[in-house]
Amino acid sequence: MTERRCPICAKVITAEAPAQSAPFCSPRCKDVDLHRWLSGGYAIPAVEQDDPDAEDFARDPTLH
After folding, report:
1. N- to C-terminal Cα separation, the chain
2. Greatest CA span in the chain, whole angstroms?
3. pTM of the predicted model, to two decimals?
4. Does residue 31 come out as left (phi exceeding 0), alpha (psi in the -120 to 50 range) or beta?
5. I want to staple 13 with a disulfide (CB 3.0 to 4.6 A). Which of 4, 44, 51, 53 is the partner?
6. If we measure between CA atoms, which residue out of 47, 36, 39 comes closest to residue 8?
């Protein structure tokens, strides 16, 4: 069997780890991950682009 590690603390996950905490080693690591999601820690950065306007359509007729 391959060794599984907690994605938060990197501890080896044993068979005794609570099943409801999977894939984490403990409820604490599960809560840390949830907090990261809810606080935007896992957000993908994006570059905002301007909406096309009349000037853009004049330069590139394929935008119509």
Report:
1. 57
2. 66
3. 0.61
4. alpha
5. 4
6. 36
